[in-house]
Specification:
282 residues, alpha/beta, Udp-n-acetylmuramoylalanyl-d-glutamate--2,6- Diaminopimelate Ligase, Chain: A, domain 1, six-stranded mixed sheet, five-stranded mixed sheet, 10 helices, 21% strand
């Protein structure tokens, strides 16, 4: 498929004019490899290295492990579709680190573009991060909530689970590792209604919206209690909102897996490239 046509289709299907992100601000030593359009708004093709896309790989982050795995396959004339344009690790500062320059040079030589959709994939829709996570847990999406910079990124869902412990078990089953629980509220789930904001959803602004929806449990990715998140934890405790965490990576992986279906519908073979969750997020 012509790369330009693919980029245009992704723009049409996922992006609205309000969306502007800020990934390009810290590209630093790889800035010369980043596409001009991405430097302007941090959405879309980040590294424009091919004219033809014959296959797609999807991933949450463009980590060294993910990029090396793609190179080890011998892939050429392809595209790496990522949710984030940088790699998350809460155990270090800064918590986001840029793509490896040497591996990017290999991508250029192999004609493998990098395409990043942060806000566009968070925005509520069939493939969005919070909706795909909610559905994987067994919740039926009722409505979208939480809007910021052009994206409505949270989901209120309902299900048959009636306790936060049961919900914790369901989340752990989906992410494939332990899920954290900060039991700040009632152990029950009134009406089975749950707020889901994948990734970094535990913030005071999100919690205010959760409270306004009359929901007492938030499922998110990063739930660690530290100096940065203390105000959110205090708010959760004060307003009796239970917080469940499944790591940044693992709660956003369902969307990136689902995107393989999107690309297959366009006639492009696609496969998700797995990575390691950072359990320090919990």
């Amino acid at each position: 498929m012509d790369a330009r046509k693919l980029y245009e289709r992704l723009e049409k299907d996922f992006v609205n004019p309000e969306m502007v992100d800020d990934w390009a601000e810290d590209m630093g030593p790889i800035a010369d490899l980043i596409a001009e359009g991405f430097m302007a708004r941090s959405i879309g093709v980040a590294c424009d290295f091919t004219e033809t896309v014959t296959q797609v790989r999807t991933a949450v982050f463009p980590s060294t492990r993910v990029m090396q795995a793609i190179l080890d396959e011998g892939v050429t004339d392809a595209m790496l579709y990522v949710h984030h344009a940088a790699t998350w690790d809460i155990r270090q500062l800064p918590t986001f680190r840029q793509m490896d320059r040497n591996l990017l040079e290999e991508f250029r030589a192999r004609r493998i573009s990098v395409f990043a959709h942060h806000l566009p994939l968070d925005n509520y829709g069939e493939y969005s991060t919070s909706r795909t996570l909610a559905e994987a847990i067994g919740l039926k999406p009722e409505k979208a909530f939480c809007r910021e910079t052009g994206a409505t990124y949270g989901v209120i869902g309902s299900g048959t689970m009636r306790s936060v412990r049961e919900l914790q078990e369901a989340l752990a089953g989906v992410v494939g590792h332990r899920a954290s629980l900060y039991p700040y509220g009632d152990p029950g789930i009134p009406g089975g209604r749950v707020a889901v904001v994948a990734g970094g959803g535990h913030s005071v602004s999100v919690l205010r919206d959760v409270m306004a929806e009359g929901v007492n449990v938030l499922v998110t990715g990063i739930s660690l209690l530290n100096d940065h998140s203390r105000s959110a934890h205090n708010f959760s405790r004060d307003h009796r909102i239970n917080v469940l965490g499944g790591t940044h990576y693992s709660t956003e992986a369902p969307a990136c897996r689902a995107m393989c279906r999107y690309f297959a519908d366009l006639g492009l073979p696609a496969r998700f490239v797995p990575d390691d969750p950072v359990l320090g997020d919990l």
